[in-house]
Amino acid sequence: MPTAQDLSTLYLSAADVARLVDRLGLPACLHGVAQRLEHDFGRWTDFDKTARVASHSPDGVIELMPVSDESLYAFKYVNGHPKNTQSGLATVMAFGVLADVATGAPRLLASLTLATAIRTAAMSALAARVLARPGSRTMALIGNGAQSEFQALAFRELLGIDTLRVFDTDPRATAKLLRNLHGQGLRLVVCGSTAEAVRGADIVTTVTADKALVTIVTADMVEPGMHLNAVGGDCPGKTELSADVLQAASVFVEYEPQTRIEGDIQQMPTDFAVTEFWQVLAGRRPGRTSDTQVTVFDSVGFALEDHSALCFLEEAARHLGLGDRLSLVPDAADPKDLFGSLARPAATHAVRPEALAA
Amino acid sequence: MPTAQDLSTLYLSAADVARLVDRLGLPACLHGVAQRLEHDFGRWTDFDKTARVASHSPDGVIELMPVSDESLYAFKYVNGHPKNTQSGLATVMAFGVLADVATGAPRLLASLTLATAIRTAAMSALAARVLARPGSRTMALIGNGAQSEFQALAFRELLGIDTLRVFDTDPRATAKLLRNLHGQGLRLVVCGSTAEAVRGADIVTTVTADKALVTIVTADMVEPGMHLNAVGGDCPGKTELSADVLQAASVFVEYEPQTRIEGDIQQMPTDFAVTEFWQVLAGRRPGRTSDTQVTVFDSVGFALEDHSALCFLEEAARHLGLGDRLSLVPDAADPKDLFGSLARPAATHAVRPEALAA
Prior knowledge:
Two copies of one chain form a homodimer. Chain A is an alpha/beta fold. Chain A folds into two domains: 4-114 and 305-329, ornithine cyclodeaminase, domain 1 (2-Layer Sandwich); 125-301, Rossmann fold, CATH 3.40.50. Chain A contains eleven helices and 18 strands. In chain A, strands 1, 2, 3, 4, 5, 6, 7 and 18 form an eight-stranded mixed β-sheet that branches. Chain A has an eight-stranded parallel β-sheet with strand order 10-9-8-11-13-17-15-16. In chain A, strand 8, helix 4 (148-159) and strand 9 (163-167) form a beta-alpha-beta unit. In chain A, helix 2 (26-42) crosses helix 4 (148-159).
C-alpha cells in the first residue's frame, strides 16, 4: 500500500515502451505477454469484468476498458479512427493505467499503442495454439496494415508458423509488410486476392481496418480444419466473416457480452452458441474436437488483455529501469485538509474571471 | 486537428493545478468553473452521456466517468476510499483527460483531486443559486472534511452566504475548517449536532464521507423553504437524507440514470419524481415555485462537471503558461507502419522470457 511518501505514478511514454520492446526484443515481449494472458485468462473468475464503454462519432470511436481483480484495477483509453492515417496520425492510439484497488492510487500510466498491437497478436496466437490444428505451419494474413507484422511474429513465435500467404487491397501495405518481415525466417507468398491467400492455409488471420460490414472471408473459401483468427471486426458495424462461415464453425470469444455487440457474431441471432476462451483454457469446455472442424476466434480485444499488458510493462520497466514519475495525486501533509494545501485565498478575487476569459 | 508534429499531451500535475488555483485565486476558479458549468448544462443535449462505470471493492470504489460532445471527449478516473486517511492518503484522488473527438488524440491529462473539489462546490452553488430562496444568507454545513471549505467559499462567492452553522462528528474536522475559513468574511457558528446546525438555516449542505446508509438529515429538522444540498450521498449504499425528507421535497438531480443508482433517491421507488437540473436552466421545467417549498439538490457528481473543469484548467494553464508535455502517442513517421518504428527485431530472442521473469 502506498504511503503519502510514494504517491507518484510510473510513466512510460510511447518512446519508453518502444525502448522497452527494443531492449527485450519483440519475440520476448510476445512470449512474455502471452504467458501473462494465459495466466490471467486461467483465473478469469477473479476479475470484475465490464463490456467496454464506447463513444461513437462520425469518424471513429473512443473507448474506455476497465477491469479489476482484488488487488489491481486497470483501464485502457483507446480510439479507432481509420481516416487518421490520411493526416499522418495512427488509426489506434492508446494509453492505460494500473491502480491499487486497496487505495485507488494510480501506480502506472503507460502509452499502449505499441502494447495494444503486441497483446492483440499474443492473444491471437495463444488462442490459435489451443484451437488450431497441431502442426499448423501456413497462415493467410488478410490486411497488411499496422497490426499485421505483430500477428506474423506472434504466430511464428508461439505456433511455429513458417509460411505467410499475404493479401491487402492496398499493395503499398503489402510492400511495407514484405519490407518489415524480410529476414525474419518466414516464407512470404504475396497473393492477388483473399481467396488465393486463404487457399491451403492452416490458419486465416483477418486484420482489416474498414469500419464497415465488409465480408472478407466467405464460406466457399473455408476448408475443413481451418482456424480463423478474426481480429479486424471489433466494433458495431464492423465485421469480416460472412454469417455462413460462422454458422458452420465452432466460435470462441473473449468476453461474450462484449463480443455480442462488437464481434463478427453481431450478425448472428443472440442465442448463437459461442464458447468463452477461458473455459477452454480451464478445461471446462472443449476446444477443437476434430481435424476437420472449423474453429473461429472472434477477437475484439478485451480489457483483461490490457491488464496483462500493463502488468508486463510495469515489471519489464522496473527490470530495465525505464520511465519517469508523474504526480497525479496531491502529496498533502494532511489528506483531510485539501484546502489547507492551497495558499490562503484572498477574500476577494485575485484575478477576475473576465480577465481569464480574455 | 493535431498533426504528427504536435501529438504531445499537456500534463498538469497536482502541483501545477495547485499553482494554477493559487495564481488565479480560489474565488476566481469557483466563478470560472461555475460559468462553464452553466454554459455546459445549458447545452445538455449536445452531450453523449453515460452513467459512470464503477468498480466496488471492500474498501472503496474506482470509477470512470466519460462524456463527449461533437468536438471534445472527456473522462475522469476517480476513487473513493474513506479509510485512506488512516494511512495518510486522500479519500478521493482523481485525474482526467480531454481528447479530440475527430482524431482520438489525447490533448490534456490533469490531476483532478483539487479540481473535483472545486467543480463539486461550484455545481452545488450554481444549483442553489437557481433553487434556493433569493436572499439566502445562512448555510448549515454538515461534514467538515476535505470538501467543506470549497462548499463554503463557493456559496459565499455565488450566493452571498455570510453565515455558516457547522457540525461534524469529529471535532478535529471542525477545528480545521475554522482554521481554514478564518478571515474569509464568513460568520462561523459551531454547533453541537446536525439538528442545531440546521435550525434556521436557509440552505443545508451535507458533505459527509461514510460509505453507509446513514441518515444525517431527518424530516423533523427541515423547515419550510429550505434548500438541501446533499453532496455526500454519492454511491450505492451511501445516503444522507431520510426518505421522508425526499418525499416532502422537490428533488433535482444532475443525470437521472446515474442518480437513481447512486444518489439519495436510491432509497425511493424508481418512479419517484425528480427533475434534471439542466431542464430548469433551460426553462423547460420549473425550479422553486414558492418560498415555503423545500428543494433538494441530490448531487452525485456527473462527468459533464469534469468536462467543464478540464476545459477550465486547459484554458487557464495556457493563459498562465503552466504544465509539461507528455508523449502518450507514438510519433511514427508512417502511422500505418507501427512495426517499422521499432528497431529491427532479431529472428531469435534478444532476452529469453525466463530471464525477464527472474
